C-alpha cells in the first residue's frame, strides 16, 4: 500500500508483443558469425522488452564500442539504466546522445524522466519543454510534464497538459485518472468525478478506476455510490489491501465502526507492515468501543465521548520505487488510486511534506518534517535516506552518512542509499569508503 501525494501515470510507450527466447538465440547465432553493432543493439532491445535490463546494458555497451557516435545506442543504454533505476548514468548517456544529435525529441523526454525520478523537477520540466518544442504532440512528454507540474503544485498547468494528452489519446483511462487527481488538488470535485466516470466507462473492470471514482463520490457526499464502487473494486481484486482500506475508511467516515473494523482488519492482514492502516484500525476500534459504552451507559450524566474527526478522502496516487537521489518518482505503470483519510500528524504525512520540501530545495524545512516522520516511524528507510540527502545538500556530511547508514541497516539492498552514501563519503574525504559503496551499489540485484 502506498501513501502521499504523488502522481502516477501510465508511461506512453505502445504495447509491444513480448519476444521469445528463440529471438535471442537467433540474434546470438548471428553475433557469433558476425559481431555487428546493429545486431547487438537489436538483441539489447529484445532483452529490454523481456525485462532483462542488465543484459541490455551489456549489449548496448558493445554496440557503442563498435559504433561510438551513433546516438540511438546511447539512448537505448540510457533506457536500460532507467529500467534499473540507475538514473545518474542514464542522464550521462542521454547527455551524450544530445551532444551527438540535439534535434530529436526522444532523448529530452527520457532525460526529463530521469531528472524527475531524481527529484530535479525544474530540469525535468525544461527537458519536457525542449521535447515539445521539437514535437508538440509528444504524448509521453505531455503526460510526464503534467505529472511534474503536480510535484511543483502548479495544478492548472497539470490540467492543461493532461487535457492535451487526452485529446491525443482519448481512450486512455489513465490520463483521465491523472487529470482527475489534479482537479482534486484544486478542490474541483465535480470535474474530478467526470474524469473518473470516463475512466470507468473506458475500463469498467479496472479496480483502480472504481476506487478513484468512489473517492470522488465521497467528496461530493454521495456515500452510497462511493461504497458501491469500493465494494466492486474489492470484488474485482479481493487481495488488494488498498481497496479494503478505502472502504474501511469510508465506513469510518460514516461512523459505521463495525464494518470499518472488519475492512481495516482485512487490510492489515493483506499489508501487515503498513503503519497507517494499523493507526486507522486502532482509531476505528476505539470509536466502536466508545459507541458501545455510550449505548450501554446508565442514564445518569456521563462524560461526553469525544468525536473522532476524519477528513473526507482526498485522491492520491501510488508511487513507484524509490529514485535517485531522493525517492520521489513522478511516473509509473499503474493508474491513480484514491486517497485514504487525511490525518495531520502521521509519519506518512510528515514524510510527504518532507519530500515536497526537498523538491522545492527547502532543505532545513525538509529536515524538520522528515525528523518528525522518523520520530513517529523510525523503521522507514526512505525517510532516513531522504533526510540524509537533505543533510548532504546542506554539506553536513557526517549527519548525512549517519542517515544513509540507518537506511542501509533497515534495507540492506537499498541501492539508492548506497549511491547516496558513496557520494557523501567522497565529499567528506573518505575515498575508500565511497569506492566500496559504489562497488556494492553495482553488485546489488535489480
Report on this structure:
The protein has 446 residues and is an all-alpha fold. It is 68% helix and 0% strand. It contains 22 helices and no strands. It has helices at 21-33, 37-50, 53-66, 71-83, 87-100, 106-117, 121-134, 139-151, 155-168, 173-185, 189-202, 207-219, 223-236, 241-253, 257-270, 275-296, 347-359, 363-376, 381-393, 397-410, 415-427, 431-443. Helix 17 (347-359) runs parallel beside helix 19 (381-393). It starts with 20 loop residues before the first helix and ends with a helix.
Helix content estimate: 55-70%
Stretches where pLDDT falls below 50 for ≥5 residues? 1-19, 297-343
Structural class: mainly alpha
Q: Could you give the order of the helices and strands?
A: HHHHHHHHHHHHHHHHHHHHHH
Distance between the termini: 21 Å
Biggest beta sheet attributes: none
Sum up the overall morphology in one term.
globular
- Helix count? 22
Amino acid at each position: 500500500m502506498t501513501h502521499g501525494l504523488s502522481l502516477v501515470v501510465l508511461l506512453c510507450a505502445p504495447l509491444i508483443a513480448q519476444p521469445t527466447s528463440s529471438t535471442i538465440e537467433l540474434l546470438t547465432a548471428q553475433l557469433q558469425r558476425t559481431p555487428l553493432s546493429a545486431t547487438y543493439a537489436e538483441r539489447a532491445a529484445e532483452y529490454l522488452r523481456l525485462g532483462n535490463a542488465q543484459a541490455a546494458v551489456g549489449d548496448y555497451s558493445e554496440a557503442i564500442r563498435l559504433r561510438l557516435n551513433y546516438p540511438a545506442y546511447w539512448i537505448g543504454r540510457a533506457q536500460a539504466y532507467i529500467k534499473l533505476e540507475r538514473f545518474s548514468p542514464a542522464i550521462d548517456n542521454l547527455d551524450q546522445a544530445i551532444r551527438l544529435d540535439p534535434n530529436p525529441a526522444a532523448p529530452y523526454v527520457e532525460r526529463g524522466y530521469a531528472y524527475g525520478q531524481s527529484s530535479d523537477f525544474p530540469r525535468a520540466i525544461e527537458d519536457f519543454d525542449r521535447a515539445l518544442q521539437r514535437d508538440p504532440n509528444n504524448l509521453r512528454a505531455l503526460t510526464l510534464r503534467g505529472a511534474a507540474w503536480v510535484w511543483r503544485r502548479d495544478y492548472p498547468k497539470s490540467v492543461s497538459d493532461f487535457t492535451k494528452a487526452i485529446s491525443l489519446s482519448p481512450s486512455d483511462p489513465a490520463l483521465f485518472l491523472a487529470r482527475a487527481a489534479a482537479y482534486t488538488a484544486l478542490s474541483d470535485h465535480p470535474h474530478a468525478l467526470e474524469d473518473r466516470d470516463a475512466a470507468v466507462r473506458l475500463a469498467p473492470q479496472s479496480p483502480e478506476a472504481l476506487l478513484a471514482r468512489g473517492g470522488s463520490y465521497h467528496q461530493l457526499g454521495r456515500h452510497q455510490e462511493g461504497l458501491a464502487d469500493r465494494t466492486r473494486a474489492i470484488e474485482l481484486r479481493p487481495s488488494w489491501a488498498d481497496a479494503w482500506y478505502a472502504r474501511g475508511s469510508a465506513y469510518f467516515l460514516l461512523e459505521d465502526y463495525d464494518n470499518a473494523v472488519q475492512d481495516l482488519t482485512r487490510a492489515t492482514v493483506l499489508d501487515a507492515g503498513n503503519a497507517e492502516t494499523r493507526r486507522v484500525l486502532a482509531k476505528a476500534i476505539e470509536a466502536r468501543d466508545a459507541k458501545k459504552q455510550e449505548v450501554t451507559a446508565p442514564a445518569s450524566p456521563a462524560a461526553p465521548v469525544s468525536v473522532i474527526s476524519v477528513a473526507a478522502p482526498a485522491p492520491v496516487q501510488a508511487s513507484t520505487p524509490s529514485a535517485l537521489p531522493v525517492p520521489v518518482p513522478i511516473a509509473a505503470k499503474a493508474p491513480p488510486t484514491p486517497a485514504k483519510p487525511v490525518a495531520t500528524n502521521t509519519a506518512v504525512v510528515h514524510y510527504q511534506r518532507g519530500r515536497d520540501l526537498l523538491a522545492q530545495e527547502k532543505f532545513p524545512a525538509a529536515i524538520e518534517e522528515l525528523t518528525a516522520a522518523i520520530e513517529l516511524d523510525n523503521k522507514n528507510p526512505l525517510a532516513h535516506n531522504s533526510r540524509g540527502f537533505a543533510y548532504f545538500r546542506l554539506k553536513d556530511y557526517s549527519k548525512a552518512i549517519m542517515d544513509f547508514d540507518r537506511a542501509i541497516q533497515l534495507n540492506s539492498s537499498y541501492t539508492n542509499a548506497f549511491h547516496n552514501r558513496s557520494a557523501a563519503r567522497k565529499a567528506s574525504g573518505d575515498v575508500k569508503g565511497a569506492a566500496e559503496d559504489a562497488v556494492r551499489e553495482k553488485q546489488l540485484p535489480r
